[in-house]
TrEMBL record:
Keywords tagged on the record: Oxidoreductase
InterPro entries to which the protein is assigned, alphabetical: F420H2_bilvrd_red/Heme_oxyg (IPR052019), Pyridox_Oxase_N (IPR011576), Split_barrel_FMN-bd (IPR012349)
Protein name per the record: Pyridoxamine 5'-phosphate oxidase family protein
Pfam family, one: PNPOx_N
Organism per entry: Rhodococcus parequi
Listed EC numbers: 1.-.-.-, 1.4.3.5
Gene Ontology MF annotations: pyridoxamine phosphate oxidase activity
Length: 169
């Protein structure tokens, strides 16, 4: 996301008077350090679906995987609109990050291999995937479809000094 990174916009309506905007390095550090993310998708009937999952940042884009028959995969087959969020549940400290955009399926072996390596590096051997037929395969969980989140908007909510920063893509 850095190659085409727009300027940060601090929304003063939701920020303390002297609060500085969050920086992109703060956002990427939060994404790289987070273990759990929440993916929001839209069901065929328009209802939201929110579920926790793990995700990795590769080539400055967030990636996640899901079983092909899971609800989130079925939702994304109908609408690629999604939001990926992470942060702290503490009220007075931390940085919450929301990436709004669309999920794009990744199936080329070279990209999948790099993403599988990132999962193993971040989450350990329990999250070790082989690449077969354009998907991840894990003996414990079966096949998984891999997606990249293409951002339209990234929001950072700094707590403590309370600042809302936005990047629009």
């Amino acid at each position: 996301m850095t190659a085409q990174l727009p300027a940060a916009e601090l929304d003063r309506r939701y920020s303390e008077e002297n609060a500085p905007p969050s920086t992109w390095p703060q956002v990427t550090a939060a994404l790289d350090g987070a273990e759990v993310f929440w993916l929001s998708t839209v069901r065929a009937d328009g209802r939201p679906h929110v579920t926790p999952l793990i995700a990795v940042r590769v080539d400055d884009r967030m990636h996640f995987c899901t079983g092909p028959d899971e609800q989130k995969a079925r939702n994304l087959a109908e609408s690629s609109a999604c939001a990926l969020t992470t942060g702290s549940n503490a009220l007075g400290s931390g940085l919450d990050v929301v990436i709004e955009g669309r999920a794009v399926r990744i199936s080329d072996p070279e990209s999948l291999t790099g993403i599988a390596d990132a999962y193993r590096a971040k989450y350990g051997s329990d999250w070790s995937f082989d690449v077969t037929d354009g998907r991840f395969v894990n003996t414990a969980g079966g096949p998984a479809t891999v997606f990249r989140v293409e951002p339209s908007t990234v929001l950072a909510f700094a707590k403590g000094e309370y600042a809302q920063t936005r990047w629009r893509f």
